[in-house]
Specification:
Distance between the termini of chain B: 45 Å
Radius of gyration of chain A: 25 Å
Strand content of chain B: under 5%
Radius of gyration of chain B: 24 Å
Distance between the termini of chain A: 31 Å
Number of helices of chain B: 14
Oligomer: heterodimer
Order of helices and strands of chain B: HHHHHHHHHHHHHH
Number of helices of chain A: 8
Structural class of chain B: mainly alpha
Helix content of chain A: 10-25%
Strand content of chain A: 25-35%
Number of strands of chain B: 0
Structural class of chain A: alpha+beta
Number of strands of chain A: 20
Order of helices and strands of chain A: EEEHEEEHHHEHEHEEHHEEEEEEEEEE
Chain lengths: 371, 282
């Protein structure tokens, strides 16, 4: 049995269903990230694990013990809130030691634990300050300190970095990873930022509409998404989706036509009987710009469109073009590709292309994965 | 100050200062006049209007001494202070406990209950005073401190004010405390109470002003002279058959006015802060 087991969990507020049949198992010491757009139920799931929210149906168990009815404080979880939730009238020391003081722990034990947490989080010099005298990053560290002294079985983070500026966020991200490495405790982290999820997670849980869409390692999810939502949500800039239709399927693969209005190609997928409308998914880096009169690669798929926008990011640039049927396609281009406007051509690495059925599900070969 | 910087003071700000000083003079003059009447030789005609300066400090002190030694004024002072202290303690305790529940937790019938309590704000005291009297009398609490204090403990206004304050406490903070293992009462004591300290101070001051100046309820409940509050004693001095000279009456009045004045002077910043915050934070 997994360390933390979420089994058939649902949650409804009145008639509004927020989570629907969530199943998830988390191993000890894992860094798990729940990611999804706002309102997808990720924070609710986290709050249910912490005990701040009740479970409508299903069970949550930690180390084999069902904790549905266990008081939040007794579950062995500690939570870091987006707003930090520091007590403004208390010093850092008092904030960090709050839980221990409420439990009437001996004074020496409290002092020792706070000192240890302060050393880990470099808070030593800030112990006498009140939250108003701390910067955003420092407040965040105090909030984490408050969690650490409780020595929880599971750390829960509810979008802890979203109140910080971009630079500090990157720095805190690195600190969190370092902290996880040092403590080795299971951490569950909620974010709507897929970059944060990709960089932090051992295991990424993509959620939408109250359901778990896919669970896996960040790169697995990036390369091999289960459905159109996951494919579109993970990755920046997002995946291009081109409307197309399946003409026929043979042992060679599926013949796809009308890609972006006109192009046609054969995908090396064995899906007998597939016909009708489909969607063709392409990541921007799987399109290569064809500059000037460069010849079209043999047997490849070529997309041609009008340049609408070029984003130059320094190391790379992204060209946004409109195909004949009006579909907007983003192509990653190097710095050398001086794109100014007019017509733009890009060749597609068909082996990397993904196919989605009309219901948004990924079309895979019988072996499961395409590769 | 140079003549140049003098010239820079705009007319508008001068006018504002002028107006403020005028209002202050109008408000302060009666108190100043009272002080002047007290600190004057006995028998000096009060009719010299207006009296602008005290004429004899020792005469005033003599009058104060006389009132404290020859009448029950000191006992009334004690009764009034106890009445105020108990009421403040009770209003703060009951009000903050109730506000804590109303503002931060969901429970069945919360809106309805709160609505009923707020409705009681609309009912004038004159309407409820007779039923309250009858109830107190049936409890056998006439002429007791209990009878004086208990009916004033449930303050709808106090509850309203504290609820407005506590609503501003972020829910996260309460939840964080719960996760930290704090019990309900510990959250109240260590998180909610300290966070609405300003509101509590304001409510304490307003309650003090109200109980110190309360005339009707002590008059009804305390028929025996041993239970008279300062307000009642001052009332006796003022009554037509009291045979007191105007300067003695003024001395009694001045002594009654000193505690709230001191209170206000000490806490005026908190009062203004508290009232301003109860308006914007809710």
């Amino acid at each position: 049995m997994a360390f933390l087991d979420i089994s058939s969990v649902s949650k409804a507020f009145g008639t509004l269903s927020v989570l629907d049949d969530v199943n998830l198992s988390i191993d000890r010491g894992e860094f798990v990230v729940f990611v999804g757009p706002s309102g997808c139920g990720k924070s609710t799931l986290l709050r249910m694990i912490s005990g701040l929210e009740t479970v409508s149906s299903g069970t949550i168990s930690i180390e084999g013990e069902i904790v549905n009815e266990v008081e939040p404080a007794l579950r062995g979880t500690a939570m870091v809130f987006q707003s930090y939730a520091l007590y403004p009238h208390m010093t850092t020391f008092q904030n960090v030691s709050f839980g221990l003081r409420m439990a009437h722990r001996p004074r020496e034990v409290i002092a020792k634990k706070v000192q240890q947490a302060a050393a880990i989080l470099r808070l030593d010099k800030l112990l006498e300050r009140k939250p108003a005298q701390l910067s955003g990053g420092q407040k965040q560290r105090v909030a984490i300190g408050r969690a650490i002294v409780r020595e929880p079985r599971v750390f829960l983070f509810d979008e802890p970095l979203s109140n910080l500026d971009a630079e500090l966020r990157v720095q805190m991200r690195a600190e969190l990873m370092d902290l996880h490495k040092r403590l080795g405790t299971t951490m569950i982290y909620v974010t709507h930022d897929q970059v944060e999820a990709m960089t932090l997670a051992d295991k990424m849980v993509v959620m939408n509409g109250g359901r778990v869409q896919q669970v896996g390692k960040p790169l697995e999810i990036y390369d091999d998404p289960d459905n159109r939502f996951v494919a579109g949500f993970v990755g920046s800039p997002k995946m291009n989706f081109l409307p197309a239709y399946a003409i026929d399927a043979s042992s060679e693969g599926v013949r796809i036509g009308g890609i972006g209005g006109q192009a046609e190609t054969v995908l090396p997928l064995f899906v007998p009987g597939l016909t009708g409308k489909v969607e063709f998914g392409l990541r921007p880096e799987h399109l290569s710009p064809l500059l000037g009169d460069a010849p079209q690669p043999e047997g490849g798929l070529l997309l041609e469109g009008k340049v609408k926008l070029v984003e130059e990011l320094g190391a790379e640039s992204f060209v946004h073009m409109d195909l004949v049927d009006g579909t907007r396609v983003t192509v990653r281009a190097g710095r050398d590709a001086a794109v100014t406007g007019g017509t733009f051509r890009a060749s597609v690495d068909v082996r990397r292309a993904l196919l989605f059925a009309r219901d948004g599900q990924r079309v895979r070969g019988p072996s499961g994965s395409r590769k | 100050m140079t003549s140049q910087s003098l010239r820079r003071i705009p007319v508008w700000s001068l006018a504002k200062w002028g107006l403020a000083l005028m209002i202050a003079a109008i408000a302060l003059f009666p108190i100043w006049w009272m002080i002047n009447v007290v600190f004057a030789l006995p028998g000096e005609p009060v009719s010299i209007n207006p009296r602008l300066w005290p004429t004899s400090i020792p005469a005033g002190i003599e009058k104060i001494h006389l009132i404290f030694t020859e009448t029950d004024y000191l006992r009334a002072y004690g009764i009034s202070l106890l009445y105020a202290a108990f009421t403040i303690a009770g209003v703060l305790l009951i009000g903050s406990l109730a506000a804590f529940e109303f503002a931060l937790f969901e429970f069945p019938g919360r809106s309805l209950l709160f609505g009923i309590v707020m409705l009681s704000l609309m009912v004038p005291t004159a309407v409820t005073i007779i039923p309250t009297y009858l109830l107190t009398s049936q409890l056998g609490w006439l002429n007791t401190m209990r009878g004086l204090v208990v009916p004033g403990l449930a303050s709808a206004f106090g509850l309203f004010m504290l609820v407005q304050f506590m609503r501003a406490i972020p829910k996260d903070m309460i939840e964080a405390a719960r996760l930290d293992g704090a019990s309900h009462i510990q959250i109240y004591r260590h998180v909610a109470l300290p966070l609405c300290r300003n509101a509590l101070v304001t409510l304490a001051i307003l309650t003090f002003m109200q109980t110190w100046g309360n005339y009707m309820w002590p008059l009804i409940i305390g028929t025996k002279p041993e239970m008279y509050t300062v307000g009642q004693v001052v009332g006796l001095f003022n009554s037509p058959l009291s045979h007191q000279t105007v300067d003695m009456v003024m001395t009694a009045n001045l002594l009654a006015a000193i505690p709230p004045l001191l209170f206000f002077l000490i806490f005026q910043r908190k009062i203004v802060e508290g009232i301003a915050m109860s308006g914007t934070k809710g």
